[in-house]
Write a structure and sequence with these properties.
This protein has 431 residues and is α/β, with parallel strands linked by helices. It folds into 3 domains: 157 residues, 3-Layer(aba) Sandwich (Rossmann fold), CATH 3.40.50; 144 residues, 2-Layer Sandwich (Dihydrodipicolinate Reductase, domain 2), CATH 3.30.360; 87 residues, ACT domain (Alpha-Beta Plaits). The protein has 15 helices and 16 strands. Strands 7, 8, 9, 10, 11, 12, 13, 14, 15 and 16 form a 10-stranded mixed sheet that branches. A 6-stranded parallel sheet has the order 3-2-1-4-5-6, sandwiched between helices. The chain is elongated. The relative contact order is 0.13. The model has no long low-confidence stretch (mean pLDDT 95). Bound molecules: NADP nicotinamide-adenine-dinucleotide phosphate and L-homoserine. The site of L-homoserine (HSE) has 11 residues, from helix 7.
Length: 431
């Protein structure tokens, strides 16, 4: 049988999973590729470290140059995280005539234009299914299968680590920090888990999806975002009491023919499909004008789900499918954006506010006045009896539909009230 020599750079959580699929299930990949994907080299930094896979003698190396110099290696899975040296290695691999598969969304969201332009100029391709939503084939679906549609909206749980943490907080009332450590141990989190929980990782993935699905040219840093790193267990409990679950939602929606993008902790009503997504799972609800509503659901992080996406890309690259897709999609090309960015302040929705207020007369009137000044109508108010006389009390308010701008202005006014003791918590609500 014909064989294509391949290499892996980075043999951590994902790389070791890819090696296992190539070595232990070679017959399966050969059947789909019509050729053997022969693992020639696997590059690491530290040769002494124990690996989560067994490699044949001579495969493990700490020299990327060995891969670059080997003209027979055609496809390389680049599975190092972060920006550098990942960027330089990516460019070197392309320059040396290799096609590259990657799971590194941070790299694509930051240096996509440079990498994709270089690949195009060199007649090479880059495949990146594993960069968004782990094992869910969302890149292929948005980039190819839905190409007859104008996408109208996309709501995604795109960070497995955050969802894992939120699920534990909801189900077990676990403290935030102890769950972060568990997510790291299970291989879901980034090398720097701050990127998972502060909304960065989800914004980087959203930038890739918005580019692919809507033709938006938005840098991930320009996407308004907040994460779950400042979330209080009290908000999780209030959400539960009112019949909601908090999810870190990445949102792209067309608003008057412009695209509104944001990443925000959001109260999603129980029973809605996105509210029921637990653990490190991801889900993406997409609405297209022809197809209607679709839901993609599956493991969004972890070794074998991510390796599944990487190896599928390696097969597609080896047989030439990725090259055709890459050429036709013209990703990050100089083509103008098909859609302009909407003003975030004009995006409409309902909001949750939690205020810590003095337990004294007239406070509720001042709070409702601040909201009323922004034309915000209150849908419900929740306040429990105080623990002790004279102490501060939490006041939870759900609004009717308004705009993000009005909600932010109201929040700023509320913060200035003498009877409001801390910065108000404000989150989106999806019913
Ligand atoms: P990881 O466990 O930290 O593994 C990274 C690997 O890269 C390690 O084996 C490390 O070698 C190697 N490496 C780093 N710098 C290197 C260098 N200069 N030369 C050679 N090797 C180098 O990371 P991971 O979780 O597998 O993630 C890899 C990529 O996949 C990241 O971009 C991540 O965002 C993405 N991703 C991860 C997941 C997931 O669930 N983990 C899911 C989707 C996408 P040593 O072991 O010798 O240090
Ligand atoms: N750290 C990422 C997450 C890995 O938790 O979703 C998958 O991209």
């Amino acid at each position: 049988m014909h064989q294509t020599k391949v290499a892996i750079i980075g043999l951590g959580t994902v790389g070791a999973g890819v090696a296992r699929l190539l070595l232990d299930y070679g017959d399966r990949t050969a059947r789909h590729a019509g050729r053997t994907l022969w693992l020639e080299k696997a590059v690491v930094r530290d040769l002494q470290r124990s690996r989560d896979c067994e490699l044949p003698p001579g495969v493990l190396t700490d020299s990327i140059q060995e891969v670059i110099d080997d003209r027979e290696i055609q496809v390389v899975a680049q599975l190092i995280g972060g920006l550098e040296p990942a960027r330089s290695i990516m460019l070197q691999l392309l320059e040396s005539g290799k096609d590259v598969v990657t799971a590194n969304k941070a790299l694509l969201a930051e240096h996509g234009p440079e990498i994709f332009d270089r690949a195009r100029a060199l007649g090479r391709c880059v495949a990146f299914e594993a960069s968004v939503a782990g094992g869910i084939p969302i890149i292929a679906n948005i980039g190819q299968c839905l190409s007859a549609n104008q996408l109208l909206s996309l709501h995604g749980i795109l960070n497995g680590t955050s969802n894992f943490i939120l699920s534990k907080m909801h189900a077990e009332g676990s403290a935030y920090q102890e769950v972060v450590t568990e997510a790291q141990r299970l291989g879901y989190a980034e090398a720097d888990p701050a990127m998972d929980v502060d909304g960065t990782d989800a914004a980087q993935k959203l930038a890739i999806l918005a580019h692919l699905g809507f033709g938006a040219r938005v840098h991930w840093q320009d996407i308004p975002r907040s994460g779950i790193d400042t979330l209080d267990l009290a908000d999780v409990r209030y959400a539960q009491e009112m019949g909601y679950r908090i999810k870190l939602l990445a949102v792209a929606e067309l608003v008057e023919e412009k695209i509104a993008l944001h990443v925000s902790p959001t109260l999603v009503r129980e029973g809605r499909s996105l509210a029921e997504v637990g653990g490190p799972y991801n889900a993406i609800r997409v609405v297209g004008d022809a197809v209607g509503q679709l839901l993609f659901y599956g493991p969004g992080a972890g070794q074998m789900p991510t390796a599944s996406a990487v190896v599928a890309d390696m097969i597609d690259t080896a047989v030439g499918r990725s090259a055709i897709t890459f050429r036709t999609l013209e990703l990050w090309s100089n083509r103008e954006a098909r859609v302009a960015a909407a003003d975030y302040a004009s995006v409409r929705g309902r909001f949750y506010f939690r205020l810590t207020v003095d337990d004294c007369p007239g406070v509720l009137a001042k709070v409702s006045q601040a909201l009323g000044e922004q034309n915000i109508s209150i849908a419900s108010v929740l306040q429990h009896e105080p623990d002790a006389a004279g102490s501060a009390v939490p006041l939870v308010i759900m609004t009717h539909e308004t705009t993000a701008g009005a909600a932010d202005r109201a929040s700023a006014t509320l913060h200035k009230l003498a009877s409001v003791q801390a910065e108000p918590v404000r989150m989106w609500v999806r019913d």
